[in-house]
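Hi support team,

I submitted a single chain yesterday and got back a structure, but I'm not sure I'm reading the token output correctly. Could someone confirm the output below corresponds to the sequence I sent? I've pasted both exactly as they appear in my results page.

Thanks,
R.
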Amino acid sequence: MNPFLNVKVAVCALGGRRGFLELPESLANEEREFIGGGEKSLYELATALAALGVDVELRGHLNSRILATITDAAGATPTVGLEPRRPEPGEVVVLPEGLPDPDLFLTAHLSGARTVVLLLGPPGLCGWSFQAGWSPPDLTVVDVATVGTPATYRAMANLGFSLWSPAWGIAEAGRRAGVRVSRIGTGTPVPFPDPPAKTADIAVIEANRWFPVAEGLAQQLPGATVLRVSSQSVYSLSTALGPAKILPWPSRVEGMSRIAREARAVGTVPVALSSNPFASPRDFGQGAVLAPDVHGVLRETRRLLGAPDELAQRAKLAARSAREQVDWKRYLGRVAAALRQLPASPTADARAEFGDEVVEEHRRLFDALRQEGLEHRGTLDALQKQELEHRGTLDALQKQELEHHRTLDLLQKEELEHRLTGDTLQEAAAENRALAAELAAARSGLDSYRSRRIIRLLDQSRAGAVIRASLRTGRRPISRG
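Hi R., thanks for writing in. Yes, this is the structure output for that exact sequence:
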């Protein structure tokens, strides 16, 4: 009989749309090209719960291809493709510690669910520290004493959260704070590739927060061949890391290193810092070499390159140890034990009541704001209608004004034409008067000319001679008729 028949679990990865005090949607596609090792661990945990027969949901914005790699190998899959919802009373909600805001923790706390915080790294390093005034630190320079503090562990425990972690070092930090942390370790159903032939001395992973330090180490090994591993959207970096003999890994602070484990699985020996208080030698496993500082990493890397027999022996130990660490059946056993040991919450009913009241008050406020918004929308629509009417009136007035301008332009044009016609008529009248004067003068001249011409003709005629003779004698001419 399935011991988890009535157990329901919601594992929340990163991203996903959600409403007030709701768990995120479950959206599985390939749009998220790159996901970190912590998210892969959440996929593995959800798949392990499904393999145990638990009714488990995996929520968030998921990489469907990487998830399918895990679920196909396990023969079990969590439920995906879900809408946001409120946590249900009695269910288990698993949240990663690396959430930058407290709102999902608030969602789980103000419900009747049992909350598990999966500590993939020291709390306060990548996610909220459960302390006031927290802000994300720079991982390359942060004081390791300021993260994973006893106060943080106690705050989570006092809120009723149960704590799980893959790492021995993180569990031991909780124990020192007086808080129980269930170490579930890590596991994968996907087999590692066999270690390949070694063709490079060291590997350096690009697009990684520790890349600048690792690149500096590589430059101080001028005779070494360097395998540069680019950022890849794959489930495991083992295949990419396999050709290298050594992985210099100058990580100052983190939990159980997934990259170092994937390197070990293919016989690439990690040389890492022992100063990280949240990863114990058991987390690094056999085969790895630990150094107290970056200079020590450089020194040990140079030494191992000059000790091929030791390096080969460590590579074998590393590959065997990595496979033991991720043994799927053992991982299922540890997850089952942690799930069975989850305590019931004496405050679940009260928290659920608080949450329901907050959600109801939020709904009332939202409805009131929506109604107010509808009223404002109605007022705005009326104002917009008035504005359109005013705009129509203004357009009509502008049209009338334009027509008046056109009429005025026509009148001004006609006035100009009339003025030009008047000027033309005045010029014509003046010309007519001048012509009349010239004509009168011509006529006067012509009359004078005619008079003179008649006299000359008369003088030249016989009658003129008779007249001239009579004038001389004083007698009148004798008529012959």
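A quick pointer for reading it: The chain has a mean pLDDT of 90. Let us know if anything else looks off.

Best,
Support desk
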